[in-house]
Amino acid sequence: xxxxSRTVARTVARAVARxxxxxxxxIAHGACLSQPATTQPARPWMNASxxxxxxxxxxxxxxTLDEKIQLVHGIGWGPLMPGRPVPPDNNGGAGEVIGIxxxxxxSLQQADSAVGIRMAAQQSRYATLLPSVLAAASSWxxxxxxxxxxxIGRELRAQGYNQSIGGGVNLARDPRNGRxxxxxxxxxxxxxxTVGHVIRGVQDNQIMGDIKHYAFNDQETGRMIVDxxxxxxxARESDLLAFELGIRIGxxxxxxxxxxxxxxxxxxxxxxxxxxxxxxxWHFPGFVVSDWDGTHSTDKAAMAGLxxxxxxxxxxxxALKHAVSSDRVPMRRLDDMVHRLLRSMFSAGVIDQPATPRxxxxxxxxxxxxxxxxxxxxxxxxNDGTLPLHFASVRSIAVIGAHADVGVxxxxxxxxxxxxxxxxxxxTTPTKWGEAVYFPSSPLRYIREHARGxxxxxxxxxxxxxxxxxxxxxDVAIVFADQYMSESGDSPTLSLPGKxxxxxxxxxxxxxxxxxxxxxxxxxxxxxxxxxxxxxxxxYPGIGGGQAIANLIFGDVAPSGKLPITFAKSExxxxxxxxxxxxxxxxxxxxxxxWAADDQKxxxxxxxxxxxxxxxxxxxxxxxxxxxxxxxxxxSYTKFKYSxxxxxxxxxxxxxxxxxxxxxxxxxxxEVYVGLxxxxxxxxxRLAGWQRVAxxxxxxxxxxVPLEPLxxxxxxxxxxxxxxASGKYTVSVGGxxxxxxxxxxxxxx
Length: 749
Ligand code: BGC
Known about the structure:
Layout: H1 3-28, H2 52-60, H3 65-70, E1 75-76, E2 95-97, E3 108-111, H4 133-138, H5 142-158, E4 163-164, H6 188-203, E5 210-214, E6 226-229, H7 232-237, H8 239-250, E7 254-257, E8 261-262, E9 265-266, H9 271-281, E10 287-290, H10 299-304, H11 318-325, H12 331-348, H13 363-377, E11 379-383, E12 396-400, E13 408-409, E14 438-439, H14 443-450, E15 455-459, H15 464-472, E16 476-483, H16 500-510, E17 514-520, E18 534-537, H17 545-553, E19 605-608, H18 617-623, E20 640-648, E21 653-660, E22 666-675, E23 685-695, E24 700-706, E25 714-716, E26 721-723, E27 728-734, E28 742-747
Parallel strand pairs: 3-4, 5-7, 6-8, 6-19, 7-10, 12-15, 12-16, 16-17, 17-18
Antiparallel strand pairs: 1-2, 2-3, 8-9, 11-18, 13-14, 20-21, 21-24, 22-23, 22-27, 25-26, 27-28
The structure holds beta-D-glucopyranose.
């Protein structure tokens, strides 16, 4: 058959299928066959005034068993796995679920898009690299988070996708987790709010959103064999609370269940996680999709609440059809799976407003938005007054290390975005999984643009003594240090990789005006902290990173980000000194200590989360440990004063006055923490609200912060419900979890 006759055959087949479908539709809706066809809409589910649930059920009544099965699994990693069949309409993303063309149900085109769209290069497309999600969380700005999602959503739409499979919200229980850059830090409220708003931004573009990895995929080491053990109370008050808030705010179409086990059951066939908590307690109406190859069974998974196997058909293809035909899985349950998918598609708008025609993404708008988010999220950790740099006193600058002459580092794995023009440090080499990719946003270039008339010289930092001698000859040294992190590996330690600590110490010894800019996925230790004049944590700052860093260094933008995660002084201060399951062999010297591929070669192991909900700042506070930098910490170029605390217990709001007492304008993130009544025995405060407030020099603002009720609740396992204690709560307000000048004791419930 030639191409033309194939097309004709396909068109005829489609027409026949459509006619058959229409006939079935009419019968199913009790339409009288003698009635003129024109009085009935051909596809009544296309009536957008009906609810997504009604529309989904109308479609389900038209579906054959095979079509239902077709909608609960898909293909994936197609372009990544040569030799696997790729359907003609495949859009090149991580997954595709083939739609039902005869009923006008489009295929689901799913794209990894944690920090921007992945796999654009294969299609010769461009995608904006945003700062890491951890960076977005450092802005403590729901509007920036929404913008983050908007960039992803509009670019997905331009490229013909209709689902994002980003939305990572796993909490930073272990600061060495390789995927921390994809997540929003250690606090359930901050993480849930950040990711919830990212999802909203995505979905405002009529793109289906997702939240992942549900749940407790808090380390990469052994992610496919680890069994997480935690009490239900601690689970609900920590990791699951981040999901609960993220889902409440973002209303994502799907939840991706994770690879690991939780209390002996795989997350993707865990009745408690999926049926009981997600669909029961939270009334989640969307669908549960397995992480890629995270499905382990047919009957058990289907009955435990998994709605879609991705990718492949081993469990939710013929095997599920057989299970339904033999009534081991009731048809009602299969219909529920399909209903959840279809109602999400209707609700998100991907059927009414499909992503056509395709467009070229707007790289300029993407750059501007990415840079704006980076500027809000870079955290100034130390400053002896050297920053911002002033031309009057600075005639020469030494810029050192981390390929700052060509670009900024990005995070790897399924969050890897392809760099325009190729990897900035090696443009012609194809990028492989696990290899560091630099984006062409050179800090050196933008420092030079700011410092016209100043001698700016670069040293690669590969030889500490040559870097030190350049630093010695300059008025100021700016050392860049970076840390590559990726899915499928964790960092065995909190140290900067390689010899970067030695480099920084050598430069700082040569020049007292040494400023360190960190481009890291995770918190790191800083053995040189007392030797340097300043430190900026820029995270993975995205495609506008070079510009953003330079703007902060020169004071065009006031630093305002604050840490969404505690920086520990050493691994010994963490709840677990070593990563669960990290073998001595896997820890020997690599930047990434462990590769998940090793999972197939060894037995499973348990991760006992005996710290419960007490990790991050809650751990450091209750153990009386001094962190290197506390949660919520970040400096500005000005100073803020807090006064006049008032707590309205009925309205559950906290009001205070914030004054900018410094010489420069600035933005403060004002944080509210609450300690529960003492009788409960909890020995830490919880973040309960905050506000990002711009205040000009000499001005003051009255700020009111609503308290999030779930952030100050405890989970009662016996009643299987949230509870609020009576008694006096301690409300504290200030600029970080360790700097809380205002305090009040009040009964809130
Ligand atoms: C990751 C997911 C990702 C999926 C598809 C998995 O290995 O854990 O986050 O969405 O692959 O690429």
